[in-house]
């Protein structure tokens, strides 16, 4: 069984499934995907991800505010985040983090929000899902400052081995998306070969970043199998072994998730 450890089910382009989320999830299940983590990115979509986790037994959710969804006049409040995280199917915090690629001018605002999410992780003991782009040094500095007792994950990893190793040293997991299949991702593939098997996750980040051979099309949870097949071949293991390992890793990282088996 595979787990799509990071997907945005409330944002999927469902054209290929006649507008039906039920059909999209069934298509993924038919390809061996047994669980989905639907990611919170804003206060506005918190209700949607919680509702999806209530609707489907194999969907859990996270709650958080993405660094590119922050508003200078309406920072997320710790009380709000802690209250939302009390939902029984909210198994993680985020996605949160830093993105200086698109909004370097908002670095201070992003750091304040990231610290708030990390404080919520400390208070709830729930794992944190980290988005980082063009902010390597500050991301690691804030994670070290937080010194969380529980693990988290750097999702949709695109950085180099030095950053991966630093995150691993902090107890974090590394998750790979369809980007690892892209033709210009040789450096990332080298990282994917080196990540220890017990710290590896797979994801789609759908509807974004569809893997080869679907690049340029809307991504769907069913394509996590393409990511897993590619990684299994890259690492020289059977797909079944990689699926078992990454699913076990997911269950260990997100112990509150309702993963079958």
Automatic annotation (TrEMBL):
Chain positions recorded as a divalent metal cation 2 binding sites: 131, 155
CDD domains linked to this entry: TatD_DNAse
InterPro entries assigned: DNase_TatD-rel_CS (IPR018228), Metal_Hydrolase (IPR032466), TatD-like (IPR001130), TatD/YcfH-like (IPR015991)
Any one Gene Ontology molecular-function term assigned to this protein's record: metal ion binding
The entry's keywords: Hydrolase, Metal-binding
Entry annotated with the keyword Cell division: no
Binding site for a divalent metal cation 1: 6, 8, 95, 205
Name of one Pfam family that matches: TatD_DNase
Highest taxon of the lineage: Bacteria
Keyword Plastid found: no
Gene Ontology annotations for the cellular component aspect, listed alphabetically: cytosol
Family: Belongs to the metallo-dependent hydrolases superfamily. TatD-type hydrolase family.
Protein name: TatD family deoxyribonuclease
Species name: Stutzerimonas stutzeri
Lineage: Bacteria, Pseudomonadati, Pseudomonadota, Gammaproteobacteria, Pseudomonadales
């Amino acid at each position: 069984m595979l787990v799509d450890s990071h997907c945005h089910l409330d944002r999927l382009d469902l054209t290929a499934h006649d507008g039906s989320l039920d059909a999209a999830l069934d298509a993924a299940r038919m390809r061996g995907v047994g669980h989905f983590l639907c990611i919170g990115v804003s206060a506005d979509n918190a209700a949607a991800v919680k509702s999806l986790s209530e609707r489907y037994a194999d969907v859990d959710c996270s709650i958080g505010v993405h660094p590119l969804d922050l508003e200078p006049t309406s920072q997320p409040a710790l009380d709000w985040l802690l209250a939302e995280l009390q939902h029984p199917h909210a198994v993680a915090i985020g996605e949160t983090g830093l993105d200086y690629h698109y909004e370097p001018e908002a670095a201070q605002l992003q750091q304040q929000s990231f610290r708030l999410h990390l404080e919520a992780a400390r208070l709830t003991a729930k794992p944190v899902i980290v988005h980082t782009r063009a902010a390597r040094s500050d991301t690691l500095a804030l994670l070290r400052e937080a010194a969380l007792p529980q693990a988290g994950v750097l999702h949709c990893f695109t950085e180099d081995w030095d950053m991966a190793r630093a995150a691993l040293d902090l107890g974090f997991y590394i998750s790979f998306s369809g980007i690892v299949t892209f033709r210009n991702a040789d450096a990332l593939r080298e990282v994917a070969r080196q990540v220890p098997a017990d710290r590896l996750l797979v994801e789609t980040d759908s509807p974004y970043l569809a893997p080869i051979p679907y690049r340029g099309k809307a991504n769907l949870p069913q394509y996590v199998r393409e990511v897993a097949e590619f990684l299994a071949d890259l690492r020289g293991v059977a797909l079944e072994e990689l699926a078992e390992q990454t699913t076990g890793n997911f269950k260990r990282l997100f112990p509150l998730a309702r993963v079958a088996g």
